[in-house]
Amino acid sequence: MPQPIESFLSSQTYAVAGASTRRHKYGNKVFRALLDSGRQAYPLNPISEEIEGHKAYPRIADLPVVPEALSIITPPEVTRQVVADAVAAGVKHLWMQPGAEDAQASQAARDAGINVIDDGSCVLVLLARE
Questions:
Q1: Distance from C-alpha of 13 to C-alpha of 2, rounded to nearest angstrom
Q2: Tens of pLDDT, residues 5-29
Q3: How many CB atoms sit inside 10 A of residue 2's CB?
Q4: Which residues does 1 contact at the CB level (< 8 Å), separation at least 6?
Q5: Whole-model pTM?
Q6: How large is the C-alpha radius of gyration of the chain?
Q7: Distance, CA of 69 to CA of 10 (rounded, Å)
Q8: Domain CoA-binding spans what residues (predicted)?
Q9: Going from the N-terminus, what domains does the chain have, and what CATH number goes with each?
């Protein structure tokens, strides 16, 4: 397993930007997969109050803790703001899921010293292998 992915998966706390209340949506599946693997995860969604029985938060700054790792499942134009918030909060690891990638956001995160995974690999595939 590549080192950036190992580092992401060994984090203690996670947030999922783009977590969804709809179970067929990718943002919901990633959030559930993190929970099912025994990880502490927080859903980020500006319009939902609760996702899978967990309080949802509008932005990273609203979370009770700074997550070590952030999985991003948002459109690229939203990804930029999510990454800016992550940099400001001190997140250590970012994983842009397929379709969420934004070159500008990736560069900003790397410039801030964040471990970035944006190569099209999918967190669900790797969680399923654990």
A1: 20
A2: 999 999 999 999 999 999 999 999 9
A3: 11
A4: 9, 126
A5: 0.96
A6: 13
A7: 9
A8: 8-100
A9: 3-129 (3.40.50.720)
